[in-house]
Design a protein that fits this description.
Blueprint lengths: L10 H8 L5 H7 L4 E2 L10 E6 L3 E5 L13 E16 L8 E15 L10 E5 L3 E11 L4 E16 L1 H7 L5 E11 L9 E15 L1
Antiparallel strand pairs: 1-10, 2-3, 2-10, 3-9, 4-8, 4-10, 5-7, 5-9, 6-8, 7-8
Keywords: Signal
Length: 210
């Protein structure tokens, strides 16, 4: 994990100046800029997430270890999923030149591997969710057994969580991330084909420390 700035004795003078207006921990937290975790924190970069019956997206990534807890802790955790391509299984016999697709209700759930999804962070808001885009210019990705159709521009789905997500990934042992949502397509050429989303990258940003 990228190092997060921690409380330092030099803040003590600022705390004395601030007096009773704010606590030292709140003052130190206010001075910490947003922090981004290491690349690919959820372990889903370049993953082709194919739909299940009912156009359901449901993918569970490999477990990842706890990050080292820092103080002060963040009150806001932003998870970003960047998508610039959608996929169709390579065995599909009626591939269109282009088609429209809607990604809806994309969510990321993170839990301790030994726990259940009942213990999860609260989502405070999302952006670019749902998104409707046109996919075209297909390219075969044999290592994934799919054709990848490019979107006109990458779309970043941002999901905002409370501190509980940070608590989960800094305690309790190995963690598991699960991405869910729906993918809607109206093109009759794709009936019976498996369509999905290709995750270009992902990030986790911590902010609002205190």
């Amino acid at each position: 994990m990228s190092k997060i700035q921690t409380f330092n004795p030099k803040w003590s003078l600022l705390c004395l100046v601030a007096g009773g207006l704010v606590s030292c921990s709140n003052l130190a937290g206010a001075l910490i800029p947003p922090q981004t975790l290491q690349d690919n924190p959820l372990g889903i970069n370049q993953t082709a997430i194919q739909t299940r019956p009912g156009n359901i997206l449901d993918y569970t990534a490999a477990p990842f270890g706890d990050y080292v807890a820092q103080s002060p802790a963040p009150n806001t955790v932003e998870v970003g999923i960047v998508i610039s391509k959608v996929t169709v299984n390579a065995s599909c016999l009626t591939l269109p030149a282009s088609f429209s697709v809607t990604l809806r209700d994309i969510k990321v759930q993170v839990r301790d591997q030994s726990d259940t999804f009942a213990q999860k962070a609260t989502i405070k808001g999302t952006t670019e969710n749902p998104i409707t885009v046109t996919a075209s210019n297909k390219v075969l990705r044999p290592e994934l057994s799919v054709y990848a159709y490019a979107l006109a521009a990458p779309k970043t789905i941002k999901i905002i969580y409370d501190r509980q997500l940070y608590n989960i990934v800094t305690s309790g042992g190995a963690n598991v991330a699960r991405l869910t949502g729906t993918l809607e397509i109206a093109d009759p050429n794709l009936v019976g084909c498996r369509v999905g989303a290709l995750v270009d990258s992902n990030y986790v940003k911590l902010s609002n420390f205190g």
